[in-house]
Amino acid sequence: MKWTTKPNPRHKDTPLCDVILQIKRNADGTLNEQLTDVCYSPEEGGPSLFYWSEGNFSCDCNRETPFGEDTEDCTYGRYSLRLLHPETREVYYQDGQWD
Ligand SMILES: [Zn+2]
Predict the structure, then answer these.
(1) Over 90: is that where the pLDDT of 99 sits?
(2) Ligand 1 centre from 54 Cα, in Å?
(3) Could you tell me what percent of the chain has a pLDDT over 90?
(4) For the chain, is the Cβ count within 10 Å smaller at the N or the C terminus?
C-alpha cells in the first residue's frame, strides 16, 4: 500500500498522511466514516498504529465521540475501528467486529 505524506505543521520530523477512519457502534451496527490525517510511520510503512491499537483511540471513551455520546466509560469492545487507504479503500488496520 502506497501512502502520500504531507508536512506536519506541529512536528516537522513526523509527516502526516490522509486516512479514512471508520468507527462502528457494535450495538446497532451504525457506521461513522471520516477522512482525517494521522502521523505517518516510516517503520510501519503507513499510518502509525499505536494511537489506534493501544493509545487514546483504542478506548471506547474516544471512539464514542463521533456518535454524539459522552459516557466517558473507559471500556473496550463497544466500538470497532478500521483504517482504510484514502484512495483505494484497502483495509490497513482493523479491530473489533467486521464481516
Ligand atoms: Zn478511555
Answers:
(1) no
(2) 11
(3) 95
(4) C
